[in-house]
Each structure stands twice: as C-alpha cells, then as structure tokens.
Amino acid sequence: MEPEYDFSKGKRGAIEPVAKGKTRITIRLDDDILEWFRSEANNKGGDNYQTSINEALRQHIHQQSQEPLESILRRVLREELTQSQSN
C-alpha cells in the first residue's frame, strides 16, 4: 500500500454505468421471494435473477392492462347467444 493516495480526480457514483432504460434503485424484498428468483435463475443456467423479477413485474402489468376476464366472458356469451338465436 502507498502511504498516501491521490483522490483529487476521483468521481462519485457507480463504477459501472447503468444501461439506458434502466434505473438503479434499492428495494426490499422478502427473503423467500428473493431466494425463489435466485433459485429459478440458477436452475436456468445462471440467468440474472433481477431480469426474472423485471419480467415478472412486466407480465403482471400486462395482465392488469388487458380486458378483465368477466368482460371477456360476457362478450363471448352475448356473441354465442346472438348466433344461436339467429340459427
């Protein structure tokens, strides 16, 4: 070790830059949830568990934005009733 280090040109922040479209955050997850995602990632050959969490959140958002099942069932039943009445 050197007796003294020069940090005058040092920069604060992450050593590796964050990819565009990504934001670094701190999040607290239950241990069992995190362990499940890590285990799944390991079973898939070492995939990144954070990517799996991101994909699970994306799927949840997509499901929330789709037409509710109740509306789909009502629409299909109306179509089937109309079709059977015309025959």
**Which regions contain 5 or more consecutive residues with pLDDT less than 50?**
none
- Average pLDDT number: 88
How many strand units?
0
What is the terminal-to-terminal distance? 90 Å
> SS-based structural class?
mainly alpha
Number of helices: 3
User: What profile does the largest beta sheet have?
Assistant: none
The shape is: elongated
The share of residues in extended strands comes to: under 5%
Q: What pattern of helices and strands is seen along the backbone?
A: HHH
What is the radius of gyration computed over CA atoms, rounded to a whole number of angstroms?
Answer: 25 Å
Helix content: 55-70%
What would you say this structure looks like, in words?
It contains three helices and no strands. The chain is an all-alpha fold and 87 residues long. Helix 1 packs across helix 2. It is elongated and about 95 Å long. The termini are far apart. 0% of the residues are buried. The model has no long low-confidence stretch (mean pLDDT 88).
